[in-house]
Amino acid sequence: MAAIALIDQGASTFQAGTPGRSIISSVLTCAASILLLAGLWTPIAGVLVLTVELWADFSKPGDHWVQILLGTLGAGLALLGPGVWSFDAYLFGWKRIGSRPRKS
Description:
Elements: H1 2-16, H2 23-38, H3 42-59, H4 65-80, H5 87-92
Helix pairs in contact: 1-2, 2-3, 3-4
């Protein structure tokens, strides 16, 4: 859902020609959202989303709640990592972190 919202935000910026967000910011947003949608390089794409949304938040005046929401979602996706049905899980496999039982 975050990727679809980011694609919508980036595409609407291209169509409207909004001066608040630059073309570079829109391209980075669309690229990160496509990576998130595919589940490829999820932590990197999440950090990229967070960076672009923070940049957009501080660079223009007005209502910042959409940027805060999308930046938070990007940070959460970067921390959670890829899902079960993603290219990251297919290419690199799932890493299971387990604890060994204590020896008493």
